[in-house]
Amino acid sequence: MNSTSVMMLGVSSVTFVLSVVAALILGAVATFFVVKLIRKKKAEKAKQEAKLIIENAEQDAKNIIKEAKLTAQEKALDIKTEVENELNLRRVELEKLNDRYLKREEFINNKEEILEKKTENIETQKQELDAMADNLKKQFEGLEVEKGKILAELERVSKLSRDEAKTILMNKMEDEARHDALITLKNIEQETKDNANKKATEIVALAIQKYSADITSENTATTVLLPNEEMKGRLIGREGRNIKAIEQATGVDLIIDDTPEAIVLSSFDPVRREIAKISIEKLMQDGRIHPARIEETVAKVTKEIEQEMKDAGEQAVIEAGVQNIHPELVKLLGRMKYRTSYGQNMLKHSLEVSFMARMMAEELGVDAEIAKRGGLLHDIGKAIDHEVEGTHVSIGVDLAKKYKENSKVINCIEAHHGDVEFSCIEAVLVQAADVISSSRYGARRETMESYIKRVEKLEEISNSFDGVEKAYAIQAGREVRIIVKPEEIDDAKAMFLAKDIAKKIESEMEYPGQIKVHVIRETRNVEYAK
Questions:
Q1: Which residues contact 229 (CB under 8 A, 6 or more apart)?
Q2: Strands (E), 299-453
Q3: Within 13 Å of residue 89, how many CA atoms lie on the same side as its CB?
Q4: pLDDT at 98 over 80
């Protein structure tokens, strides 16, 4: 191989190398641009994906905010609805109370108008009586003139002295005038009595309407203390369903007013009030207050109270030592545990009467068993007098006859207030024991000091009148007996004296019930046979 060939071979090799190098460089450049293009596309794609994620996130955030706003609005609407319902319920209760007060005020106003008319009628009658008194006075004056003429004629005809004729005529005319005056007064008094019952009933009814809250709250209302104000709303319940359930189950009225942490139970039946009170206290302790639970609790408490009354009746029978009393009468005795009269518990009062009647019967040697049995049952009618028409005496007699009590026991019941005649000595003893138990100081919430002052005031007023020899306050101040001097006070004056004393007592004293003024005039003529 020559040098030319070698050179050509070398040139060819260099050219090849250069070609390869150029190809590699071109490939690298192409690869660079291709990679750069791919990266650029990936970057653009990543940007688009990021933008899409951001847009989706923003949309999700908007949706979440929107849902949150809707949820908040729904909760606010629910709260607003619940508050509006509660306000409506309170508004309805307030409107009911307002209606009650308006009706009561209207009723009182009507009664006041009636009372004013009655007062005007009384004034008219008073004027008529004054006119009649004037007529009587004129008649007396005419009689005086006639008396003068008769005196002159008597002196001429009878030849009597003026003083003797005057004495005879005055005695005659005085007797006639007194007789006529007494007849007129009795007629007026009888007419007044005929109208008195009706007018007194109306006045008492009006007084009860005006002052019933002060007088009867103790016997018709019971206060239940609450742990907090929230409990009032729970007792009322949604739309008042709980309070309706309580009133329907117990038969009492629930009064929910502005008194803090307290409600009032109103009913004339003390047993129902006690059942309602205990039921509400148990419901508050339990915490579950709804109609079904209320009915269940009231039924349970009713059974407990009935058992308690039965036990109280049986205990009273055992303490009194009375046997073979009908079980229904024993239950009624137990009911009297919740019955009061002027603050005096009727069951304790009946036991007191039974004990005292028995002791008096033993001292007198009469039937002590009848006396203590009649004393225990004498007020049995008061156990149901708010459920049955009639007085407690008539109700008690009906009960005693129904359960086959002894006729003497029945007489003890029907005669203890003097409604009928006594047919046995035991009935007299029961009446005496009843008066002792109910009239002793302290039995009916009257202090010893006020009792003594009332009795002393009665005797002081009675002794202040001329012609009174001695006055005695008896029956725990319910009656005053006045002994007059017969030489100073005759029968006509005794009647007027009783009226004057009664009027002065009414004007100067305050007392419950009524006071009997009993004027006694006694004349004794004594002669000795020698």
A1: 260, 261
A2: 340-341, 344-345
A3: 20
A4: yes
Query: Which residue bears the tokens 């304790």?
Result: 348
**Quick one: which of 427, 517, 445 has its CA closest to 475?**
517
Q: Is 376 within 8 Å of 333 (Cβ atoms)?
A: yes
pLDDT in tens, 128-140: 888 888 888 888 7
Where does the pLDDT of residue 249 fall: very low under 50, low under 70, confident under 90, or very high at 90 and above?
confident
Contact 414, 355 (CB under 8 A): no
With a threshold of 0.85, does the pTM exceed it? no
Residue 297 token pair? 């609790």
Identify the weakest region by mean pLDDT among 38-47, 71-80, 137-146, 165-174: 165-174
Enumerate the β-bridge partners of residue 262.
225
Return the pLDDT at 442.
Answer: 46
The DSSP line for 81-128 is: HHHHHHHHHHHHHHHHHHHHHHHHHHHHHHHHHHHHHHHHHHHHHHHH
Span 224-230, mean pLDDT? 82
Q: Torsion angle, CA of 348/351/357/363, rounded to 10 degrees?
A: -110
The tens digit of pLDDT for each residue in 434-482 reads 887 776 544 444 445 666 777 888 889 999 998 899 998 887 677 889 9
Burial grade of 322 (CB within 10 A; 0-12, 13-18, 19 or more): buried
- Alpha carbon of 280 to those of 211, 236, 286, 366, 466: distances in Å? 29, 12, 10, 50, 63
341 Cβ neighbours under 8 A, 6+ residues apart: 349, 382, 438, 444
Closest to 210 (Cα-Cα) out of 299, 111, 279 = 111
The residue-averaged pLDDT of 333-345 equals: 77
Non-local CB neighbours of 40 within 8 Å, separated by 6+ positions:
none
Q: At how many degrees (to 10) do helices 368-377 and 346-364 cross? A: 160
Phi, psi of 263 (to 5 degrees): -130, 160
Q: How far apart, in whole angstroms, are the C-alpha atoms of residue 450 and residue 452?
A: 6
- Percentage of the chain modeled with pLDDT above 90: 7
CA distance linking residue 261 with residue 229, whole number of Å: 5
| Overall average pLDDT of the 387-404 stretch | 88
Q: Among positive and negative, which fits the CA dihedral 200, 205, 210, 216?
A: positive
- What are 250-257's contacts with CB under 8 Å, separation 24+? 250/275, 250/276, 250/279, 250/298, 252/276, 255/221, 256/93, 256/232, 257/97
DSSP 513: S
